[in-house]
Amino acid sequence: MPLFWRISLFNSVVLIAATALLLGPVTVSTPVLLTEAAILTVGLVVILVANVVLLRIGLGPLRQLARAMTTTDLLRPRVRPEVDGDGEIAELITTFNTMLDRLEAERALSAARTLSAQESERHRVAQELYDEVGQTLAAVLLDLKRVADQAPDEVREQLSQVQETTRASLDEIRRIARRLLPGVLEELGLSSALRSLSDEFTGPSLTVRHHIASGLPALGDNADLVLYRVAQEGLTNAARHAGARLVVLSLEGAGDAVRLRVRDDGRGFVGSGDTVEGAGIRGMRERALLIGADLVVGPVRGGGTEVRLTVPVGDRVADPVG
Fold first, then answer.
1. Crossing angle of helices 88-128/34-71, nearest 10°?
2. Which of 80, 82, 167, 247 could make an SS bond with 264 (beta carbons 3.0 to 4.6 A apart)?
Protein backbone atom coordinates (compact mmCIF):
# COMPACT_ATOMS: atom_id res chain seq x y z
CA MET A 1 0.00 0.00 0.00
CA PRO A 2 1.42 3.47 -0.85
CA LEU A 3 2.77 5.54 2.04
CA PHE A 4 0.09 8.21 1.57
CA TRP A 5 -2.74 5.71 2.05
CA ARG A 6 -1.03 3.99 4.99
CA ILE A 7 -0.69 7.26 6.89
CA SER A 8 -4.19 8.36 5.92
CA LEU A 9 -5.69 5.02 6.97
CA PHE A 10 -3.93 5.04 10.34
CA ASN A 11 -5.00 8.62 11.12
CA SER A 12 -8.55 7.82 10.00
CA VAL A 13 -8.70 4.85 12.38
CA VAL A 14 -7.48 7.07 15.23
CA LEU A 15 -10.07 9.76 14.48
CA ILE A 16 -12.89 7.23 14.14
CA ALA A 17 -11.94 5.63 17.45
CA ALA A 18 -11.84 9.02 19.17
CA THR A 19 -15.26 9.95 17.75
CA ALA A 20 -16.73 6.63 18.85
CA LEU A 21 -15.50 7.21 22.38
CA LEU A 22 -17.01 10.69 22.47
CA LEU A 23 -20.37 9.37 21.28
CA GLY A 24 -20.28 6.39 23.64
CA PRO A 25 -20.80 6.06 27.35
CA VAL A 26 -17.31 7.26 28.19
CA THR A 27 -17.31 10.76 29.70
CA VAL A 28 -14.84 13.13 31.26
CA SER A 29 -15.67 14.60 34.64
CA THR A 30 -15.35 18.23 35.58
CA PRO A 31 -12.90 18.64 37.11
CA VAL A 32 -11.00 15.81 35.40
CA LEU A 33 -10.30 12.85 37.62
CA LEU A 34 -6.75 11.55 37.98
CA THR A 35 -7.61 8.18 36.37
CA GLU A 36 -9.30 9.91 33.43
CA ALA A 37 -6.27 12.18 32.92
CA ALA A 38 -3.98 9.14 32.99
CA ILE A 39 -6.09 7.32 30.40
CA LEU A 40 -6.14 10.37 28.10
CA THR A 41 -2.38 10.82 28.48
CA VAL A 42 -1.67 7.18 27.69
CA GLY A 43 -3.93 7.33 24.65
CA LEU A 44 -2.22 10.48 23.38
CA VAL A 45 1.24 8.96 23.87
CA VAL A 46 0.20 5.79 22.02
CA ILE A 47 -1.11 7.86 19.09
CA LEU A 48 2.03 10.00 18.91
CA VAL A 49 4.40 7.00 19.18
CA ALA A 50 2.48 5.09 16.53
CA ASN A 51 2.65 8.07 14.17
CA VAL A 52 6.39 8.51 14.78
CA VAL A 53 7.12 4.81 14.22
CA LEU A 54 5.02 4.66 11.07
CA LEU A 55 6.62 7.79 9.59
CA ARG A 56 10.13 6.67 10.54
CA ILE A 57 9.67 3.28 8.90
CA GLY A 58 7.92 4.72 5.87
CA LEU A 59 10.31 7.64 5.31
CA GLY A 60 13.54 5.79 6.19
CA PRO A 61 14.37 4.98 2.54
CA LEU A 62 13.97 8.68 1.72
CA ARG A 63 16.68 9.60 4.23
CA GLN A 64 19.03 7.07 2.64
CA LEU A 65 18.19 8.48 -0.76
CA ALA A 66 18.90 12.03 0.45
CA ARG A 67 22.34 10.92 1.73
CA ALA A 68 23.08 9.29 -1.61
CA MET A 69 22.10 12.49 -3.43
CA THR A 70 24.47 14.62 -1.35
CA THR A 71 27.45 12.26 -1.65
CA THR A 72 27.18 11.07 -5.25
CA ASP A 73 30.18 11.89 -7.45
CA LEU A 74 30.06 10.79 -11.08
CA LEU A 75 33.85 10.40 -11.06
CA ARG A 76 33.65 7.96 -8.16
CA PRO A 77 31.07 5.27 -8.93
CA ARG A 78 29.73 3.53 -5.87
CA VAL A 79 27.00 1.11 -4.87
CA ARG A 80 23.55 2.40 -5.74
CA PRO A 81 20.96 3.07 -2.99
CA GLU A 82 19.07 -0.11 -2.22
CA VAL A 83 15.49 -0.11 -3.48
CA ASP A 84 13.61 -0.29 -0.21
CA GLY A 85 10.00 0.32 0.74
CA ASP A 86 7.20 0.06 -1.75
CA GLY A 87 4.93 2.21 -3.82
CA GLU A 88 6.11 5.72 -4.64
CA ILE A 89 9.30 5.50 -2.54
CA ALA A 90 10.58 2.38 -4.30
CA GLU A 91 9.71 3.97 -7.63
CA LEU A 92 11.60 7.15 -6.65
CA ILE A 93 14.75 5.24 -5.66
CA THR A 94 14.61 3.18 -8.86
CA THR A 95 14.24 6.35 -10.91
CA PHE A 96 17.21 7.93 -9.09
CA ASN A 97 19.41 4.89 -9.80
CA THR A 98 18.37 4.93 -13.45
CA MET A 99 19.20 8.63 -13.64
CA LEU A 100 22.68 7.98 -12.17
CA ASP A 101 23.30 5.23 -14.72
CA ARG A 102 22.34 7.57 -17.54
CA LEU A 103 24.42 10.48 -16.18
CA GLU A 104 27.49 8.29 -15.73
CA ALA A 105 27.13 6.93 -19.26
CA GLU A 106 26.76 10.44 -20.67
CA ARG A 107 29.70 11.67 -18.59
CA ALA A 108 31.87 8.80 -19.79
CA LEU A 109 30.94 9.48 -23.43
CA SER A 110 31.60 13.20 -23.04
CA ALA A 111 34.92 12.55 -21.31
CA ALA A 112 35.91 10.07 -24.02
CA ARG A 113 35.32 12.68 -26.71
CA THR A 114 37.20 15.33 -24.74
CA LEU A 115 40.18 13.10 -24.04
CA SER A 116 40.23 11.93 -27.64
CA ALA A 117 40.36 15.55 -28.76
CA GLN A 118 43.17 16.21 -26.27
CA GLU A 119 45.21 13.28 -27.55
CA SER A 120 44.69 14.43 -31.13
CA GLU A 121 45.83 17.93 -30.20
CA ARG A 122 48.85 16.54 -28.36
CA HIS A 123 49.72 14.55 -31.46
CA ARG A 124 49.40 17.61 -33.70
CA VAL A 125 51.49 19.85 -31.44
CA ALA A 126 54.17 17.18 -31.01
CA GLN A 127 54.42 16.69 -34.77
CA GLU A 128 54.76 20.43 -35.31
CA LEU A 129 57.47 20.63 -32.66
CA TYR A 130 59.32 17.78 -34.34
CA ASP A 131 58.81 18.86 -37.94
CA GLU A 132 58.85 22.65 -37.69
CA VAL A 133 60.59 23.95 -34.59
CA GLY A 134 62.95 21.01 -34.19
CA GLN A 135 64.14 21.07 -37.79
CA THR A 136 64.50 24.85 -37.71
CA LEU A 137 66.69 24.72 -34.61
CA ALA A 138 68.71 21.88 -36.09
CA ALA A 139 69.33 24.02 -39.18
CA VAL A 140 70.31 26.96 -36.96
CA LEU A 141 72.84 24.74 -35.19
CA LEU A 142 74.41 23.75 -38.50
CA ASP A 143 74.60 27.39 -39.59
CA LEU A 144 76.14 28.40 -36.28
CA LYS A 145 78.76 25.68 -36.61
CA ARG A 146 79.61 26.79 -40.14
CA VAL A 147 79.88 30.43 -39.06
CA ALA A 148 81.93 29.49 -35.98
CA ASP A 149 84.43 27.59 -38.13
CA GLN A 150 85.01 30.75 -40.19
CA ALA A 151 84.85 33.29 -37.37
CA PRO A 152 87.88 34.74 -35.57
CA ASP A 153 88.85 33.32 -32.21
CA GLU A 154 87.33 36.14 -30.12
CA VAL A 155 83.92 35.62 -31.76
CA ARG A 156 84.11 31.83 -31.90
CA GLU A 157 83.78 31.49 -28.13
CA GLN A 158 80.58 33.56 -28.11
CA LEU A 159 79.20 31.56 -31.00
CA SER A 160 79.99 28.37 -29.08
CA GLN A 161 77.87 29.61 -26.17
CA VAL A 162 75.02 30.38 -28.56
CA GLN A 163 75.37 26.87 -29.98
CA GLU A 164 75.08 25.33 -26.53
CA THR A 165 71.99 27.41 -25.75
CA THR A 166 70.40 26.43 -29.05
CA ARG A 167 71.27 22.76 -28.50
CA ALA A 168 69.75 22.86 -25.00
CA SER A 169 66.58 24.44 -26.43
CA LEU A 170 66.41 21.75 -29.10
CA ASP A 171 66.75 19.02 -26.45
CA GLU A 172 64.00 20.65 -24.36
CA ILE A 173 61.67 20.83 -27.35
CA ARG A 174 62.28 17.17 -28.13
CA ARG A 175 61.63 16.28 -24.49
CA ILE A 176 58.33 18.18 -24.54
CA ALA A 177 57.36 16.52 -27.80
CA ARG A 178 58.09 13.07 -26.32
CA ARG A 179 55.81 13.86 -23.37
CA LEU A 180 53.06 15.00 -25.69
CA LEU A 181 53.42 12.02 -28.00
CA PRO A 182 54.90 8.94 -26.28
CA GLY A 183 56.27 7.25 -29.37
CA VAL A 184 58.07 4.67 -27.24
CA LEU A 185 54.67 3.49 -26.02
CA GLU A 186 53.58 2.63 -29.56
CA GLU A 187 56.93 1.23 -30.59
CA LEU A 188 58.17 -0.71 -27.54
CA GLY A 189 55.10 -1.14 -25.32
CA LEU A 190 53.97 -0.02 -21.88
CA SER A 191 56.79 -1.48 -19.80
CA SER A 192 59.51 0.23 -21.83
CA ALA A 193 57.51 3.46 -21.93
CA LEU A 194 57.19 3.53 -18.13
CA ARG A 195 60.92 2.85 -17.70
CA SER A 196 61.72 5.66 -20.13
CA LEU A 197 59.29 7.95 -18.31
CA SER A 198 60.97 7.18 -14.98
CA ASP A 199 64.41 7.94 -16.40
CA GLU A 200 63.10 11.17 -17.89
CA PHE A 201 61.87 12.49 -14.53
CA THR A 202 65.01 11.42 -12.67
CA GLY A 203 67.30 14.38 -12.01
CA PRO A 204 69.48 16.05 -9.40
CA SER A 205 66.52 16.85 -7.11
CA LEU A 206 64.34 13.79 -7.77
CA THR A 207 65.02 10.07 -7.95
CA VAL A 208 62.48 7.81 -9.63
CA ARG A 209 62.74 4.07 -9.11
CA HIS A 210 60.68 1.69 -11.17
CA HIS A 211 59.58 -1.90 -10.58
CA ILE A 212 57.93 -3.30 -13.70
CA ALA A 213 56.77 -6.91 -13.44
CA SER A 214 57.26 -9.21 -16.39
CA GLY A 215 54.67 -11.43 -18.02
CA LEU A 216 51.75 -9.05 -17.48
CA PRO A 217 48.65 -9.67 -19.62
CA ALA A 218 48.03 -7.48 -22.63
CA LEU A 219 45.49 -4.75 -21.90
CA GLY A 220 45.12 -3.06 -25.26
CA ASP A 221 46.28 0.28 -26.63
CA ASN A 222 43.63 2.33 -24.84
CA ALA A 223 44.38 0.90 -21.40
CA ASP A 224 48.13 1.24 -22.02
CA LEU A 225 47.68 4.90 -22.88
CA VAL A 226 45.57 5.52 -19.76
CA LEU A 227 48.18 3.81 -17.56
CA TYR A 228 50.94 5.86 -19.16
CA ARG A 229 49.08 9.17 -18.75
CA VAL A 230 48.18 8.43 -15.11
CA ALA A 231 51.81 7.56 -14.36
CA GLN A 232 52.91 10.73 -16.15
CA GLU A 233 50.49 12.88 -14.16
CA GLY A 234 51.51 11.23 -10.90
CA LEU A 235 55.21 11.88 -11.57
CA THR A 236 54.47 15.45 -12.64
CA ASN A 237 52.57 16.14 -9.42
CA ALA A 238 55.38 14.65 -7.34
CA ALA A 239 58.03 16.69 -9.15
CA ARG A 240 56.22 20.04 -9.32
CA HIS A 241 53.90 20.21 -6.32
CA ALA A 242 54.84 17.66 -3.66
CA GLY A 243 58.49 18.60 -3.23
CA ALA A 244 59.37 14.90 -3.33
CA ARG A 245 62.90 13.53 -3.32
CA LEU A 246 62.01 9.92 -4.13
CA VAL A 247 59.24 8.39 -6.23
CA VAL A 248 58.62 4.68 -6.64
CA LEU A 249 56.70 3.62 -9.75
CA SER A 250 55.52 0.03 -9.94
CA LEU A 251 53.43 -2.02 -12.34
CA GLU A 252 52.38 -5.47 -11.22
CA GLY A 253 49.65 -8.08 -11.45
CA ALA A 254 46.86 -8.09 -8.88
CA GLY A 255 44.66 -11.14 -9.38
CA ASP A 256 42.53 -10.52 -12.46
CA ALA A 257 43.87 -6.99 -12.82
CA VAL A 258 47.01 -4.96 -13.44
CA ARG A 259 47.91 -2.36 -10.81
CA LEU A 260 49.96 0.79 -11.26
CA ARG A 261 51.36 2.57 -8.19
CA VAL A 262 53.12 5.94 -8.06
CA ARG A 263 54.25 6.68 -4.51
CA ASP A 264 56.30 9.71 -3.43
CA ASP A 265 57.78 10.98 -0.16
CA GLY A 266 56.60 14.56 -0.61
CA ARG A 267 54.33 16.78 1.44
CA GLY A 268 51.25 14.68 0.70
CA PHE A 269 47.70 15.84 1.26
CA VAL A 270 47.13 18.68 3.70
CA GLY A 271 43.88 18.45 5.62
CA SER A 272 41.17 15.82 5.50
CA GLY A 273 39.51 13.86 2.77
CA ASP A 274 37.55 16.98 1.83
CA THR A 275 40.63 18.42 0.10
CA VAL A 276 39.61 19.84 -3.25
CA GLU A 277 41.10 17.87 -6.09
CA GLY A 278 42.85 19.68 -8.89
CA ALA A 279 42.30 19.31 -12.60
CA GLY A 280 45.11 16.77 -12.87
CA ILE A 281 43.54 14.31 -10.43
CA ARG A 282 40.08 14.77 -11.91
CA GLY A 283 41.58 14.12 -15.33
CA MET A 284 43.06 10.87 -14.02
CA ARG A 285 39.66 9.85 -12.65
CA GLU A 286 38.00 10.52 -16.00
CA ARG A 287 40.59 8.42 -17.80
CA ALA A 288 40.16 5.60 -15.28
CA LEU A 289 36.39 5.56 -15.81
CA LEU A 290 36.84 5.13 -19.55
CA ILE A 291 38.49 1.73 -19.14
CA GLY A 292 36.53 0.62 -16.08
CA ALA A 293 39.53 1.03 -13.78
CA ASP A 294 39.60 1.97 -10.10
CA LEU A 295 41.68 5.00 -9.10
CA VAL A 296 42.69 5.83 -5.54
CA VAL A 297 44.69 8.95 -4.71
CA GLY A 298 45.54 9.73 -1.13
CA PRO A 299 48.13 10.05 1.63
CA VAL A 300 50.19 7.11 2.80
CA ARG A 301 51.49 6.23 6.23
CA GLY A 302 54.80 7.88 6.93
CA GLY A 303 54.13 10.84 4.63
CA GLY A 304 53.75 11.26 0.93
CA THR A 305 51.08 10.46 -1.62
CA GLU A 306 50.18 7.36 -3.57
CA VAL A 307 48.35 7.13 -6.88
CA ARG A 308 46.96 3.61 -7.37
CA LEU A 309 45.25 2.59 -10.60
CA THR A 310 43.79 -0.92 -10.87
CA VAL A 311 42.83 -1.99 -14.38
CA PRO A 312 40.72 -5.16 -14.70
CA VAL A 313 41.74 -7.68 -17.32
CA GLY A 314 38.70 -8.26 -19.47
CA ASP A 315 35.97 -6.19 -21.09
CA ARG A 316 36.45 -2.44 -21.00
CA VAL A 317 35.04 0.55 -22.75
CA ALA A 318 36.16 0.32 -26.34
CA ASP A 319 38.21 3.05 -28.00
CA PRO A 320 37.86 5.70 -25.31
CA VAL A 321 40.83 7.87 -26.17
CA GLY A 322 41.94 6.67 -29.54
1. 20
2. 247
